[in-house]
Design a protein that fits this description.
The chain is an alpha/beta fold. Helices cover about 40% and strands about 20% of the residues. Strands 1-14-2-3-4-5 form a six-stranded mixed β-sheet. Strands 6-7-8-9-13-12 form a six-stranded mixed β-sheet. Strands 10-11 form a two-stranded antiparallel ribbon. α1 crosses α3, α1 crosses α4 and α3 packs antiparallel against α4. The longest helix is centred in the N-terminal third of the chain and has 41 residues.
């Protein structure tokens, strides 16, 4: 609660400071509109936090928070322009007192106008991210060569999906388009790496008829992400939480997904096999449920192993340096923060890179690979800017 009030106090300071720029260059009606709009948004935020149960489920909260976030980004840009100028003005003020001179405020007005113009740029970009970007599904293809891949699996394809976050879906037509795109890849196997929901199994129910259309030749396999355990929802009782979790697993099974929970399965072709290993969620900074040793129990050291692990920090901290070799790991979780800049061959950047070493795309280390899917859905901010929803198709090659 103390952290919440500190955060809200920080927002208030940002608003007061930003208002100085608005006040410098705008008319009374614009200033009044600024105050009313921000006042309503803060009132709704307070009301939802303190008076609405299971506030994480509230669509109103999501969009209210989104509007606050968009305006907050613009205000921070505003401050980045104004704060250095105010320091300079303060120094000039001190010298003017010493020299008994008046300060010319025309520069302040120019800087305020300029800062407001620049601060307005993110607004249409983020609105585009909400209305279009979140549905800008991209098929990303990777071909990976392995010396120890069984001959029968040369050319084998895996469609890697992650982070559906069903509670954030709004458009049936867009979901249908995305699932049709998944099926168009005609992959041998579907691998889903966790976070089917935001909080509860009920989020899946409106979309069951779409998800059951996902198909593949050798089956659909999934694991659990940190959001699938129901830890971020007020269930009332521990028993309700257990029943909700059980129901989530049952629904995935009904949709044709085999949920791997610290266990492995063999995919066989022409008397050869590869091992698909799925672990419970293990995350640096999150609960570490996953037990890779339990998951590979009974496998041979020589088996070609593909691991499904939701959080890429598991690969970084445990899997890549494990005594067993894991040829390929598939992860998700980061969403690429749903915000960044990617121009193939030139730049790949998102703020999430400062939290996760491996945050989007294909990486190699110690002759082992990890693919971090950028996610299918959204969470928190209901949009994507520069980091698009992803359907990954991986082709295994014998080299």
């Amino acid at each position: 609660m103390i952290r919440l009030f500190i955060f809200l106090a920080f927002l208030l300071i940002v608003d007061i400071y930003s208002f100085q720029a608005i006040k410098t260059v705008s008319k009374k009606k614009i200033r009044l509109t600024y105050i009313i709009v921000n006042g309503i948004l803060y009132f709704l935020l307070f009301f939802q936090i303190f008076f609405i149960d299971n506030v994480r489920e509230s669509a109103l909260l999501t969009y209210n928070f989104t509007l606050l976030f968009i305006l907050f980004v613009s205000k921070i840009i505003l401050i980045l322009f104004l704060f250095p100028e105010d320091i300079l003005r303060f120094i000039k003020f001190l010298f003017s007192k010493i020299q008994n001179k008046k300060i010319d405020n025309s520069r302040r007005k120019f800087i305020s106008n300029l800062s407001i113009a620049v601060a307005a740029i993110p607004i249409p970009i983020m609105i585009h991210g909400i209305t279009r970007g979140r549905y800008n599904f991209k098929v990303v293809n990777h071909e990976i060569g392995f010396k120890d891949l069984p001959e029968s699996f040369d050319g084998y394809t895996i469609t890697h999906l992650s982070d559906f976050h069903c509670g954030s879906f709004e458009s049936r037509s867009k979901l249908k388009y995305a699932i049709d795109l998944v099926n168009e890849q005609n992959s041998d196997l579907i691998a889903f790496t966790g976070d089917f929901v935001n909080n509860t199994y009920t989020e899946i129910l409106p979309w069951i008829d779409e998800f059951e259309k996902i198909n593949s030749k050798d089956g659909k396999f999934s694991i659990l992400g940190n959001h699938d355990y129901g830890d971020y929802y007020d269930w009332g009782t521990e028993e309700n939480k257990k029943l909700g979790f059980k129901k989530l697993i049952e629904i995935q099974n009904e949709l044709g997904f085999k949920v791997l929970r610290d266990e492995s399965v063999h995919i066989k072709k022409n008397n050869e096999k590869i091992s698909l290993v799925g672990v419970e969620n293990w995350g640096d900074g999150f609960k570490k449920k996953g037990d890779i040793d339990k998951a590979i129990n009974g496998l041979d050291e020589s088996d070609f192993k593909i691991v499904l692990s939701h959080d890429p920090s598991h690969w970084d901290k445990i899997l890549v340096d494990h005594k067993e070799k894991f040829n390929l790991t598939l992860s998700g979780h980061t969403h690429g923060m749903q915000f960044g800049i990617e121009i193939p061959g030139f730049i790949k950047w998102s703020p999430v890179k400062y939290r996760y070493k491996y945050w989007a795309g294909l990486y190699e280390r110690s002759n082992q690979f990890i693919n971090v899917n950028r996610g299918f859905g959204v969470l928190g901010f209901p949009g994507r800017v520069g980091i698009w929803p992803e359907i990954t198709v991986i082709k295994l090659k014998k080299v």
